[in-house]
Design goal:
- With about 210 residues, the chain is α+β, with helices and mostly antiparallel strands.
- It has a single domain, classed as 2-Layer Sandwich (Alpha-Beta Plaits), CATH 3.30.70.
- The protein contains four helices and seven strands, in the order ββααββββαβα.
- The strands form two sheets. It has a four-stranded antiparallel beta sheet, covered by helices on one side.
Length: about 210
């Protein structure tokens, strides 16, 4: 039996860029495990690229309605600005001919009013600290829904005990690993259910692999 922290993750907009996205920035309908890991790291105040190391093994379950989407045009710079000189004179004036800026328009798929119920089990001492911070609504860094401009709100629901179920077939409304799915096609058809297959990242190294 393990203890799981149950909380709601929601916001006005969200965008979880798919790893296989091409010219158009398509979004996952739910936050991948790596995103939840980053949100927990933001609440705990962990340095960048450290959550994926210290929070393993991390147990996560997620539920919620798939949000509506909207395709948004975003302007992104393609070239970095000119670097400043190491030596600057007091009489130096701004150059009239600056480097021309190159930009491109890409289409981003935004999620409207995403809201997910999360169950998370972290290794100690991070589990207890995350539970206390969610209860008191105090986090080191602002959590976001994929992009820093899309701020997230976290609402603590409770802490529950979870245990492994006996072997059998159970209806599941969550994201799970494909090898754990044993679809009953007749029941799926009769209950008008659906299975969606997504290739999503589960973990990432400090080198972003």
């Amino acid at each position: 039996m393990i203890k799981l922290i149950n909380f709601r993750l929601k916001g006005r907009f969200g965008h979880f860029l798919r790893a296989d996205a091409g010219a158009s920035a398509i979004s996952y309908p739910v936050p991948p495990r790596t995103v939840i890991m980053g949100i927990a790291g933001a609440v705990l105040g962990l340095p960048k690229d450290q959550p994926q190391v210290v929070l393993e093994p991390l147990e996560i379950a997620i539920a919620g309605r798939i949000p509506l989407t909207h395709w948004h045009k975003a302007k992104l710079r393609k070239d970095p600005p000119d670097s400043l000189s190491f030596k600057i004179k007091r009489t130096q004036k701004q150059e009239k001919n600056t480097k021309p800026e190159k930009a491109t328009l890409i289409a981003q798929e935004w999620l409207f009013k995403p809201s997910y119920e999360i169950w998370a089990g972290l290794p100690e001492p991070y589990h207890s600290e995350l539970e206390g911070r969610l209860k008191e609504r105090r986090w080191h860094f602002q959590p976001c829904l994929g992009l820093s401009e899309m701020m997230a709100d976290l609402e603590y629901i409770g802490t529950v005990d979870a245990e492994k179920l006996p072997e059998g077939t159970y209806p599941v409304e969550t994201v799970m690993r494909q090898e754990h799915v044993k679809p009953d096609i007749e029941k799926i058809y009769n209950d008008k259910l659906a299975i969606n297959i997504l290739r999503m990242p589960r973990t990432v190294t400090p080198e972003r692999v």
